[in-house]
Amino acid sequence: MPSLYSPAHRFLPVDRRGMEARGWDAVDVVFVTGDAYVDHYSFAMAILGRVLEDQGFRVAILSQPDWRSCEPWRVFGRPRLFFAVSAGNMDSMINHYTANRKVRNDDAYSPGGRIRLRPDRATLPYCQRAREAYPGVPVIAGGVEASLRRLAHYDYWSDTVRPSILLDSKADLVAYGMGEETIVEIARRFAAGKTVKDLRDLRGVAYAMGASERPPENGVVPLPSFEEVKADKAKFLEATRLIHRETSPFNARTLVQYHGRRAVVQTPPQLPVSQGRMDYYYGLPFTRRAHPVYGEPIPAFEMIKDSVTIMRGCFGGCTFCSITTHQGRTIQSRSQESVLKELAAMGRDPEFKGTVSDIGGPTANMYRMRCTEPDVEKICKRLSCVSPSICRNLGTDHGPLTELMKKARKVPGVRKVLVASGIRMDLARQSPEYMSELAAHHVGGRLKVAPEHTDPRVLSLMKKPTHDTFEDFADKFKKANDAAGKNQFLVPYFIASHPGSDLKAMIHLAVFLKRNGYRPDQVQDFIPAPFDLATAMYYTGRDPETGRELPVARGLGDRKLQRALLQFFKPENYFEVREALLSAGRRDLIGEGCDCLIASQPPPQALEARRERSAREAADYVHRVKAPDAGYRPKRATARRRS
Questions:
Q1: Could you write out the DSSP letters of every residue in 307-358?
Q2: 277 with 333: CB under 8 angstroms?
Q3: Are residues 205 and 176 in contact, defined by beta-carbon separation less than 8 angstroms?
Q4: End-to-end alpha carbon distance in the chain
Q5: Which of 200, 226, 391, 491 has a CB 3.0–4.6 Å from the CB of 152, allowing a cystine?
Q6: Strands (DSSP E) along 232-324, which ranges?
Q7: Residue 253, domain member (yes or no)
């Protein structure tokens, strides 16, 4: 392998020495990211950096800089065009904290999984340090964190409605959604001598106007102001409805939301990219490696390094998921030739072990599925193409995907191609051929599916299919396994504490798990991510679309009970499950009957677990003094702990 600093090295520069090794005295764009630098298209800094590089721009990566000083921002000198700032592939608060607001033990996007290599709300200090390092250099924010906070939003960790991230970060512009086309056009305009104000006509951006400026008036949708949505939950619901109705790139209008005397303006989303552009992005010369500067593995990269992305976007519209909001509802697919070319390159790689860990995307089986009526698509404002039922205009043919899967497993050097992305069950069960191919060749013993719940009301609020869809899919998957002579299992994922879910609904789910022998190892606690419809339900206690009141588990104690019910079989959850059953008046589920979730008497392991937990909590309370920046302090005057 060539030296890290030789001109032949294919990584983008991460320090001054790497920049000079390319013969550069300056760079055009500095990417500032909260993630470790991995040169794989699943990492935003890599795919955006490669696109810019291919268009002739000089790009450097400032990865996980020490935000306590602006000196790291000066490593490459003054950028000729702009700083591109991102918190990383995840919102930094979700990256740092669990649903119970406790500090996570690891960070999958950092070397060795180490924590605290990026700050809370990373976009804010990253933008501010860029301003401090080189005043006058434009600062463009992007990525998931900035995208989902581009307008006034509810913030779970402070339990407040916060203003647009544009005002908190002082960024010149937020490029939201998938940003390849946007960032190239920004670079071209800056290179041509244009200013930040000359970027305001771009799609997929948000910007804040000065107090003396007036926003456009024609073809715009005025939103309730920041002050209104902060003071009145009914106004928050109104803003949520309006925002989500203007998310289709084919008919969305410009949104305007005042923050005091200043207007924040969001232009319509970028149009979906063509198959040719998808092939171009994913065919760029990625090394598919973490940068050699890291001596420890990057957990997120280890998980996806042998996977292949074949499409982006999701028309499911699940209310608790940010994928549709970020990538869009329109499916954008690569050609078979592009995917097979990548697989062939993997097959020639001496480090590749022969197994493709996943072939998919946000979902496993939406490849090349689009609306079959372009004229309808142009005016449609449905938030989901499959809820409450599959739209009759949606093309759901699994033929192209099945053909691709057959060809993929025949590529030289590839022994097995697995499907690890979640299966959309309501679509898959309509294709016997796909089910047969999947069970016979592409499941490594266990298949992930996400029924999420059993309660009809909760599933409707989630925009998920009814529970009988899961049972029908499970039956067809079993038959496909039997026909293939395989003994493979479904791994269903469920969510606790989603808005609309109360103890009665969770107990119904727990009984279903008991009757069917499911013992989920991992369960998901609902986290109210900014911008999501489910987050509006959590904050307001109402359905944004109907306005009807909903039960919401807000307290950590209530959330703990719902989570325990999903894992009722664990001895350490015995007392929480008992409390939940008694609170719901379901004493009949305590005892030795077939449907009983727990025994009448606690097992020894439950008593021991309770003693250990009490001792641990007492020790933490009496003896532990955390560092000033060790945790977040919601609802406190200061966000940092005092030493």
A1: EEE-EE--S---TT-SHHHHH-SS-EE--HHHHHHHHHHHHH-TT--SEE-E
A2: no
A3: yes
A4: 47
A5: 226
A6: 254-259, 262-266, 289-290, 307-309, 311-312
A7: no
The percentage of the chain sitting over the pLDDT mark of 70, rounded to a whole number, equals 94
Domain that holds residue 194: 16-207
Q: In Å, how far from its chain's centre is CA 65?
A: 23
Mean pLDDT within 161-185: 97
Task: Taking the CA atoms of 245, 246, 252 and 258 in sequence, report the sign of the dihedral they define.
Answer: positive
CATH number at residue 148: 3.40.50.280
Angle in degrees, 0-180, between the axes of helices 44-54 and 180-191, rounded to the nearest 10 = 40
Query: For 531-573, how does the pLDDT look when each residue is reduced to its tens digit (9 = 90+)?
Result: 999 999 999 999 998 999 999 999 989 999 999 999 999 999 9
The CA-atom distances, in angstroms, between 185 and each of 57, 192, 199, 598 are 12, 11, 9, 60
CB contact at 8 A, 62 and 75 = yes
Judge whether 639 and 632 are in contact, CB under 8 Å: yes
Q: Is 543 part of any domain?
A: no
- Residue 92 CA to residue 110 CA, distance in Å, equals 12
Instruction: Indicate yes or no: pTM above 0.85.
Output: yes
Tokens read off for 203: 């799609």
Query: Within a domain: residue 120?
Result: yes
d(CA 316, CA 463): 8
Q: How many helices (H) and strands (E) does the chain have?
A: 24, 22
Contacts 24+ apart (CB under 8 A), 591-595: 595/511, 595/514, 595/515
At 615 the three-state DSSP class reads: helix
CA gyration radius, the chain: 25
CA nearest neighbour of 168 among 186, 152, 157: 152
Residues 6+ apart with CB under 8 A from 389: none
Q: Which residues of 418-432 are buried (b: 16+ CB within 10 A; e: fewer)?
A: bbbbbbbbbbbbebe
Q: Which two tokens stand for residue 429?
A: 């069960």
Element (H, E) at 496: strand 489-496
Q: Determine the pLDDT at residue 5.
A: 40
Q: H or E stretch including 360?
A: strand 358-360
Closest C-alpha to 323, from 360, 358, 357, 363: 363
Distance CA 129, CA 110 (A): 21
Strand order in the sheet with 139-142: 59-63, 29-33, 82-86, 139-142, 173-175, 205-208, 262-266, 254-259, 220-222
Question: Which residues share a beta bridge with 61?
Answer: 31
Q: For strand 173-175 and strand 59-63, is the pairing parallel, antiparallel, or unpaired?
A: unpaired
- Total count of domains within the chain: 1
